[in-house]
Amino acid sequence: NGDGTFVVRWDDADGGDETNDLGPENLKKAVVYKDYKVGDDCKAMSPNEESWHSGTVAKINKDGTFKVKWDGRDGGDKMSDTDPEFMRSQVIFKNYKNGDVVDAKFPDDGNMYPGKVIKRNRDGTFQVRWEDPEGGPTDSPIYYKDMRYPPIS
């Protein structure tokens, strides 16, 4: 504006433009990470649901968006094109070793139970032997996003 302020145009959900003159003390530079690679874990806003979900970058689109494959989607789209503005990088541990004690999501009921990693499978899952199978399978293949180290007590 010439006086040290900036004209800020707001996105208005009602369709009209709104502007305000703001000083630099009221502004924050937004940095949008755009260097995702295929296979990166992320949290992103689902365009159809307008809520955040975990997923994996499946493709880098030519227009600068990313195709996100949503984790554990029983209904709705399995993949969506997503603008990097609506994505956040996620670092999820995936280097479990044989003998590691973990809490893992039991496939039959989705609850977390204690177990031990007995091997890494070719498909990227880990074979977990359950501490107390209670008549169920003694071990199951578990995706790394469905495992964690138990809290230190």
Structure write-up:
With 153 residues, this protein is an all-beta fold. The chain has strands spanning 6-10, 18-22, 41-46, 51-60, 66-70, 79-82, 87-89, 101-105, 112-120, 126-130, 139-142, 147-148. The strands form three sheets. A five-stranded antiparallel beta sheet has the order 6-5-4-3-7, with no helix packed on it. Strands 11-10-9-8-12 form a five-stranded antiparallel beta sheet, with no helix packed on it. It has a two-stranded antiparallel ribbon with strand order 1-2. The radius of gyration is 22 Å and the shape is elongated.
Can you tag this structure with a few keywords?
elongated, 5-stranded antiparallel sheet, 41% strand, 0% helix, 153 residues, mainly beta, 12 strands
Summary of the model, kept short:
Helix content is 0%, strand content 41%.
Q: Mean pLDDT score, rounded? A: 87
Helix-strand sequence:
EEEEEEEEEEEE
Q: How many β-strand runs?
A: 12
Q: Tell me the fraction of residues in β-strands, as a range.
A: 35-45%
Q: What global shape is seen?
A: elongated
The number of helices is 0
Low-pLDDT segments, ≥5 res: none
Cα Rg: 22 Å
Span of the ends, CA to CA = 58 Å
Enumerate the strands of the largest sheet in spatial order, edge to edge or round the barrel.
Answer: 6-5-4-3-7
What characterizes the major β-sheet? 5 strands, antiparallel
Structural class call reads mainly beta
Percent helix: under 10%
